[in-house]
Amino acid sequence: EDQVTQSPEALRLQEGESSSLNCSYTVSGLRGLFWYRQDPGKGPEFLFTLYSAGEEKEKERLKATLTKKESFLHITAPKPEDSATYLCAVQASTGANSKLTFGKGITLSVRP
Amino acid sequence: DGGITQSPKYLFRKEGQNVTLSCEQNLNHDAMYWYRQDPGQGLRLIYYSQIVNDFQKGDIAEGYSVSREKKESFPLTVTSAQKNPTAFYLCASSQMYVGYGYTFGSGTRLTVV
User: Fold this and answer.
1) What is the pLDDT of residue A96?
2) Cα separation of B16 and A65, whole Å?
3) Quick check: A109 pLDDT over 70?
4) What digits encode the pLDDT tens for the residues B25-56?
5) Is the CB of A94 inside 8 Å of chain B's CB atoms?
């Protein structure tokens, strides 16, 4: 069974204090790992897709990396508007070929 | 603009009542999904459909029903058999290609009154 574990559950940072969010996964053949951002009361918004170990992608203050067992979302010099819940999901090569398995999310709070 | 629309944004249900949540997409996506989100629980899959007139149960299908009569539409009915329906419901769609992620709707918050 595919599993995704995100840590920590919640993270509080001071504005400008860089940190990383962790996503550990077990999957029967990884086809893609996805990061989403979710604001309160809204649907998740797509951030990144990573396909293979060693891959990295960047967008503004965010950088996602991937190894064979985990992914990190690095946040450099965060601002209060980066406060949100960040979801990680994996897509396996077996079973329903588009279905994603999600972690429980990491709630990030950035204080001014 | 292409997207996925959920309605209503807020919904109130009386005890013993069935309610239907709407989900429409104009992205020409083949697959559609319904998730339930509770605090601390993450996203839990209720039902999904990969083609018209076919759908599969997810992890928590009891007390819910769906239909897929059109590619664009995937309504979810929360029946009176669902004993704890208060939650945030999310609809998503995707193409059937590996490596293709979901596009989410904005969600419906259902409250039992």
Assistant:
1) 59
2) 48
3) yes
4) 999 999 999 999 998 888 999 999 999 999 99
5) no
> Distance from A103 to chain B by nearest Cα, in Å?
6
Bridge partners of A10, per DSSP, are: A107
Chain A residues lying within 8 Å of B96, measured CB to CB: 97-98
Collect all residues with Cβ–Cβ distance below 8 Å to B88 and sequence separation of at least 6. A41, B36, B37, B38, B107, B108, B109, B110
Do A97 and B96 make contact, defined as CB atoms within 8 angstroms? Answer: yes
Distance (Å) from the alpha carbon of A105 to chain B's nearest alpha carbon? 6
Average pLDDT over residues A101-112: 96
For residue A72, count other CB atoms closer than 10 A to its CB: 17
Contact B79, B63 (CB under 8 A): yes
What's the pLDDT at B83? 86
- The set of residues, in sequence order, having a beta carbon less than 8 Å from that of A13 and lying 6+ positions away, is A19, A75, A78, A108, A109, A110, A111
DSSP string, chain A: --EEEEE-SEEEEETT--EEEEEEEE-SSEEEEEEEEE-TTS--EEEEEE-STT-EEEETTEEEEE-SSEEEEEE-S--GGG-EEEEEEEEESSSSTT-EEE---EEEEEE-
Rg of chain A over all Cα atoms, to the nearest angstrom: 14
Closest-CA distance of chain B to residue A76, Å:
25
